[in-house]
Amino acid sequence: MQEKKTFYITTPIYYPSAQLHIGNTYTTVAADTMARFKKMTGYDTYFLTGTDEHGQKIERRAQAAGKDPQVFVDKIVEDTKKLWKLMDVEYDVFMRTTQPDHIQAIQRIFKRMLDQDDIYKSTYEGQYCASCEAFWTETQLNEGGTCPDCGKVTELVQEESYFFRMSKYQDWLIQYIEDHPEFIQPPSRANEMLQNFLRPGLQDLCVSRTTFSWGVPVDFDPKHVVYVWIDALFNYVTALGYMSEEDTLLKRYWPAQVQLVGKDIVRFHTIYWPIMLHALGLPLPKQVFAHGWLLFGNDKMSKSKGNVVYPPPIVARYGADALRYYLMREMPFGADGNYTNRALLNRINSDLANDLGNLVRRTLAMIEKYFDGVIPQPGIYEEVDIALREKALALPAAFEREMDALQFSQALQEVWRLVSESNRYIDLTQPWVLGRDDAGKERLKTVLYVLAEAIRFIGVLIYPVMPTTSKRIHQQLGITQDAHTTWDSLQAFGALPAGVAIQPGEALFPRVDVEKELAELEADKGKEKPQSDPVPVKKEPAKAQIAFDDFEKISLKVARVLSCEHLVGSDKLLKFRLSLGQEERTVLSGIAKYHDPATLVGRKVILLTNLAPRKIRGVMSEGMLLSAENPDGSLHLLFADDDVVEGAEIG
RNA sequence: CGCGGGGUAGAGCAGUUCGGUAGCUCGUCGGGCUCAUAACCCGGAGGUCGAGGGUUCAAGUCCCUCCCCCGCAACCA
Predict the structure, then answer these.
(1) What's the rounded Cα separation, in Å, for the pair A382 and A399?
(2) What is the pLDDT of residues A3-35, one digit of tens each?
(3) Nucleotide nearest to A149 (CA to C1')
(4) Distance in angstroms, CA of A421 to C1' of B44?
(5) Does residue A3 contact residue A253 with C-beta atoms inside 8 Å?
(6) A49, A143, A271, A342: which one has the fewest Cβ atoms less than 10 Å from its Cβ?
(7) ipTM of the complex, rounded to two decimals
């Protein structure tokens, strides 16, 4: 049996000191897209993501929260996994540096480095801020030598530390980078490393700490813990069983084909990491790809600026696929990009709703209309048909070329060329004219088949980026066999089975009202508490099922607000005078904080009319107004359409 | 001279490796079509390609000088 080619891809392991945001999501979705693509094209694929859970910052955060560090990170890890699930990220392994097997492997690695004299014990000297318990370099300090974090005066402190002999390997690495231009991508990053760090000369790297204890203990010198460089970077191989008894995965997948990193951690992944791998006799990853950052508008995302974007509210509104598409399409991978809600919404409307969604819908609608929803058997291909067919057949190669270069945006652009061409094809062939007579209908069979087949191609190609939409498209085309949705099925134009009933469903991507959505997203953000659960859904135990008879006991009616005012002596209550047509009632409602009474007069509201009357603050309230409660506790009155007559029964 | 990235139509970007009529998306204006999610298709307007100088038959693209913006200090992608 022939061995499949392997493809190992990693994201950085994230630091779980706070909720992950859209930047982390960007990297991870990119890795997922790549992994799905490689899997689809026949590679034996392995995809790693995870969390780097040690270090002083987490130790302090946990302390501040009054929690054990492990408990603290467990919670964030749980949220992180939920986020990946929400984003349809299918990793093969979620690596955590607090796993026992990792800890043991790190201890062995540390010992081995010491034994072969790559690590030595010495003292670390630096400016230390006692308040922050952190070392700073001279250049990091404020003018006057104060701590950049808290502004207090720092002191020169010595700490016993283990050091890795980076300098020993620097010439080897310079040579390696020069000999392997593909190793660091984009190439400008390689320049940066060579100019700034490698050529000026590397300093030996401090690889242990004694100032905190939340880390992998150095087993032969227990007052030290292994510092992040070794602890975190080596996860990429300990996850495969390096330094354990079971290392078949390591043999199978290492070296990685691609390691994705943000531009801020390029140095660690292209200098320290390769040197340490080399020192241990391991091969280097084929490529370290540094992508840019997602900026908000032109600003850095920053909690203090209040512009950090979190995916869950976006996914809740538009679905994971829309966000995945935007992230992969909007900016070239490698350069910085801007995230704006407006750009996202515009992409959803133009690319997804207008171009793709509408193409699918209009095609299916015509198959429905002219052939009773059954995909027709094509006849002889004419010139226009052949032109579209050739474009479709040429697509996979172009797509693969761009994907292999991690140019997701370009790859999608290629697919959208076929989307456009297909829309154009409809204009050229004018199916609605063909449908008018029998002669035209023969020709129409071919036209609609060609269209449906082009859509099948599109469905297959978008799978890595939009897995759900891909499936929906194929479902709507009535495809039931997986063989018709594989990469190999794109070798021939015509795999779509004729004579099968299509299954038209909901619009793939409904158009959105940009201005309205922008306002609502903005409102969502105000209510959202970034430190809280990323899925801002209050989980209350579901109420027990009721019988219809139970519902029948309730009388809901539409009422018109005749007057509304603050109830004197209460800051919560509004006093309503309501008309139900035949009768009028007085009702109190505890929504004064969220509604201005003046704006409510004349509105149609929903009243629970048969609730037992109750005296509140001396006023008899005859019923209850329905309102909705947001997760933040705010209350919003529910309104009925103006067309509804007052007194109308609701049921 | 610290290092890197960038300055191209109203907006967002590609094109610069290996000089040869300035391109894409959105927006805008006009037309077409009516199968479709007011969607789709065609066409137009709109740019001294940051400034100046140089090389060349020819420069957004090569060379020199200068100006401006952004990162390298993070919420660490």
Answers:
(1) 26
(2) 679 999 999 998 888 888 888 888 899 999 999
(3) B73
(4) 22
(5) no
(6) A143
(7) 0.88
